[in-house]
Amino acid sequence: MKTEIVKEILDQYGEQATDSPFERSFYSRDLAPVPELLVGPLFKTLPDIVVRPANTEEVSDILKTAWKDTIPVTPRAGGSTVYFNTVPLHKGILMDLNLLKGIVDVNEAAMTVTVKPATTWIELERYLSGKGLAPKSFPSSTPVATIGGWFSMLGYGIGSLKYGSLLSLVRSIEVVTPEGKARRLTRDTQPSLEWFAAAEGTLGIVTELEVAIRHQTKLKHFLLQCSDPLEMRDKMQVVIKGAEVPFNLHFTDEECLQGMNALGIAPGGLDHGYLLAVDYEGSDQELEQAEKIIQTMTEKYQSLRLLPLETAELEWEEKFKAMRLKRGGPSLLGAEIWLPIKNLPQYLADVRKMSQSYNLKLFSYGHVVTADYATVMTTFNADEMHTIRYIINLSLVKKLHDIGYRHGGSPYGVGLWNAPMIRRIHQPSELKRLKKIKRDLDGKGIMNPGKVYRAPFILNPLNYALAMDMLAGIRKVFGRGW
Q: 445: phi > 0 → left, psi -120 to 50 → alpha, else beta; which?
């Protein structure tokens, strides 16, 4: 990036911009502790400059400068993923969007709220709660995840089973395209707002979102203990097909339950079985109907145990602490997989086999987010302070994705690290369509380059598979005591 352009941006934005090496270094990673040995030789993750636009006009001006000189631009707000979605790969401009925050408008007649993209879900929830309103769905990372960031990902989480993905709830967006033009988009415009969902910042920068909301209602929580994965899957499907659709349906496998028990944080102090958390929201009549569904099911199936309501309510209160197993080790590694519910027992059985094969504790949990699919997270403890061991352990993430793929699953999110598996995520025709959209909207390729559409050469699918399989072989032979 030319020195004079850096100076021009610094002069124009003052304290909103920095070229300090120390301050820029905070943007060269995300939540994943990836060793420099793995990143440094391959990518240029230190941006040339960080700039924090305060409004749409400033976003537009920065992109016009970047477009004119073909400068890479990486947008970032919460930075709460682990795929390098928001980490530069080719230096350039890091656009920190955290000044684009706040509620613009609440339209109670239309039951929508318009927000700035860096508003966190917890901020939105608290604001709406004061008006007797609530989001229809939100991520399990609500305390830190931003609304724009979740829209830029797949946007499935708590509430999605009943109300749909975030994309289905967004009515319009304001977006600044790569050449710096601000536009208001709906599903009927060209381009459509749908193009920007799950694009991970590769098509432009969303500066406002209008999202459907609901009236705040009562909630009722149930926690079921199942004997095995098959029973858990079957009861999931019974609940999903019930007269009342759950607001949230979360599961925990036995290994995860045992891991929490060892840390003293297991629901009810349990150390065996498989847990199914079922949460309903609605009117008194709807909640009575929901309670009948659970009562009928527990009376019919003697092996199913209904835990005390206080335990279920406590588990709901802990819903944003999915990563609490990290207390058992310095770090966690894992794979998040979009998996057909019908194949969940087979997936968990193969994960257990892998656990035995590598002498490794693997913990699985997840959310049912549609009538047919769940987002499943399988994690294990690791220590990034032991660099070589940690890099070798990264190969097991690919092994978990292989298990998911065998059972009809695919990675949830792309960024950089899942790009080698892009053909597991998209069919060839869909990938071709997405690449055309990218070319049409960003012909110079300045927006978040190196992500989503293809893997860098060094991480092409063949190289990636061979390297990961080799490291996994080393881990199996020499790392059983790690």
A: left
Instruction: Render pLDDT for 130-180 as a digit per residue (tens, 0 to 9).
Output: 999 999 999 999 999 999 999 999 999 999 999 999 999 999 999 999 999
20's CB contacts (< 8 A; 6+ apart) are none
Helix (H) or strand (E) holding 114: strand 112-115
Between strands 93-96 and 248-252, the pairing is unpaired
Residue 61 confidence (pLDDT): 98
Tell me the pLDDT band of 395, cut-offs 50, 70 and 90.
very high
Measured between alpha carbons, how far is residue 48 from residues 28, 34, 84, 326 in Å? 11, 21, 17, 33
Amino acid at 47: P
> Rounded to an integer, what distance in angstroms lies between the CA atom of residue 379 and that of residue 325?
9
Alpha carbon separation from 284 to 125, 218, 241, 253, 287 (Å, rounded): 22, 8, 20, 31, 5
Please give the C-alpha separations between residue 271 and each of 20, 229, 261, 322, 423, in angstroms, as whole numbers.
50, 15, 6, 17, 39
Question: Is the sign of the CA dihedral 137, 418, 339, 232 positive or negative?
Answer: negative
DSSP annotation string for 401-430: HHHHHHTT-EES--TTTTGGGHHHHS-HHH
Rounded to whole angstroms, how far apart are CA atoms 388 and 469?
16
Residues 368, 240: Cα–Cα separation, whole Å: 9
- DSSP state, residue 307: P
Outline where DSSP puts E strands in 10-92: 17-18, 49-51, 73-76
Residue 303 in tokens: 């092996």
Q: Identify the DSSP state of 431.
A: H
Average pLDDT over residues 333-349: 98
- Measure CA of the first residue to CA of the last residue in the chain; give whole Å: 43
Q: Which of 54, 58, 103, 98 is nearest to 75 (CA)?
A: 98
- Give the C-alpha separation, 274 to 259, whole Å: 13
Q: Is the pLDDT score of 329 beyond 90?
A: no
β-pair partners for 278: 222, 249
Q: Which of 95, 105, 75, 122 is nearest to 16 (CA)?
A: 95
Q: What is the pLDDT of residue 324?
A: 87
Overall pTM > 0.70 = yes
Other C-beta atoms lying within 10 Å of the C-beta of residue 197? 22
